[in-house]
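subagent[fold] <- orchestrator: predict structure for attached chain, return tokens only, no commentary.
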Amino acid sequence: MKRIFGLVALAAGVLSSASAGAQNLVVNGSFEQVTNPAGVQQTTVDNRYINSPYNPTWGFDLPGWTNRGYVAVVYGDGVADDLANHQVMTNNGARASGNNVLASDKNLSGAPSVIPTSPDGGNFFGSNGHYNTGSLTQNVHGFVVGQQYELSFWSAAAVNLGGAFPTGAQPAMQGKWDVTLTGATTDVNLSVVSQTFGPYGGYSDWVKTTVRFTASSVSELLSFAPGTRSGPPMDLLDGVSIVAVPEPAEWALMGVGLLLIGARLRARRGERA
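subagent[fold] -> orchestrator:
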């Protein structure tokens, strides 16, 4: 009996270690933490401007991230298209113009439609690459050099109302993120283009991107740059994560752990019988 308990404890330890290995190294990757200049977390659902070098004091801060884009907004769940009640807020509570609220009609044809909430849930980030393009960056720590990791994120694009085309056909549009992760070498370098949408504006569907890489440094710079274009789309981003990919030996240990737990359960059923 004691031996079985010991094996179960060992299995639990194995599973716990594997779970720890899957920890997300990205801080605030779902953009749920938004703070005012005093560092106070904002808990109400709303649309908020994020500070940048161009507007360093009138917006909010995004813990873990550095924003260098001129127009950057964290959109609240379900209110990104609410022009009547949720025009984008500055840190003093003022409501800016409705230019960066997102268009809710998928093709501005008059058909009812709602801007899709992020598949990751809650807040999501938006940046307009048309104005003074700048990256959203984070110094990510905790890598093991030579270990494989997986970077994943959700992306989409939408027309902000200031750039929407309510009448007359316009060229179809796309959003774009240029994504890099740089340590001793450039470990990730890719461009993710959203689905084409239009021809009257609106938004694209969310798409998940996943890429594996081998870490070249213990700390690396993650960068998301909205693609430069002449059109008005807001590039949208959410659910950014970097997790370690389990090695084959770890998968084997996890399998052993599960078998041991199964054996313990069978033994307990036998004892009751």
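orchestrator: received. Logging for downstream: The first strand starts at residue 48 and ends at 49. The chain has one domain: 23-245.
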